[in-house]
Model the fold of this input.
Amino acid sequence: MSASGGTRAIVAALAANLAIAVAKFVAFVFSGSSSMLAESVHSLADSGNQGLLLLGGKKAQREATPQHPFGYGRERYIYAFLVSIILFSVGGMFALYEGYEKIKHPHPIEDWWWPIGVLVFAIIAESFSFRTAIKESNELRGGLTWTQFVRRAKAPELPVVLLEDLGALVGLVLALGGVGLALLTGDGVWDGIGTLAIGTLLILIAVVLAVETKSLLLGEAAGLEEIEKIEAAVVDGETVTGLIHMRTLHLGPEELLVAAKIAVRHADSAATVAAAIDAAEARIREAVPIARVIYLEPDIYSEEAAAAGKDPAATPGGPGAH
Done:
């Protein structure tokens, strides 16, 4: 994923949310609408989330240290996970509480033009932010559907911004519906119902984000396309005659660890094998540039030894699923 593309989407979302948060809060002060209060907190939480994503991207650029020899690439996953927690608690739970209070103690909306005007402005501003996120994502998702892109993306920023902006737009429509029905019927309960719907929506989005970023934090392998490229690059047919087994792990969105056991010929010298390993590492990096850390272990492949054990990883020279 292009870091610059993710940054552009984050900055666009941050600018939109800050302006919208101020406008929504002003509308709440003048109208007393709980939907507007919930939406202003939602936009403020989104602004904080974008700040966290930018901070995570900055911290992830630090150089590796003896204590953290593989670098800080996973900082981006940690901050994306924090975003899901904030969206759940500050956004979703607060909106549910406000909706409950509004239904329990309803009151009519005053100065109706404030919430209506601000909501229309917010929909326009969020649409521009959402459009930027879609444009940046289209450059990376290829033939993937949007669901596949969100689930398979190794860089968390664009999926997070996409879901946040989508949630914001749907939330604004819900708020507009709640306020509109409250004005038409004169019953403030509808405003509370709209607020409850917003809270439920935010919690659902937060759960999706938490599940996806948790998987990244635990450590995900390379995508199928990258694995196929690495497999093709390892074997040269001369010194490296086969791939016995391989493991890959994302150390960060743009840094991949590759560990593999490769088959070499019994009669090859140590110098020949060492040169073949260097050449294989060069081919892997050319095929998959994000493969930054590569460990290749040579072994003499034995069909008898492979057949003797059930665990490929524990069998000397045994083939393994990759």
User: Anything to note?
Assistant: The longest helix spans residues 75-104. The CA atoms of residues 243 and 262 lie 5 Å apart. The chain has a mean pLDDT of 84.
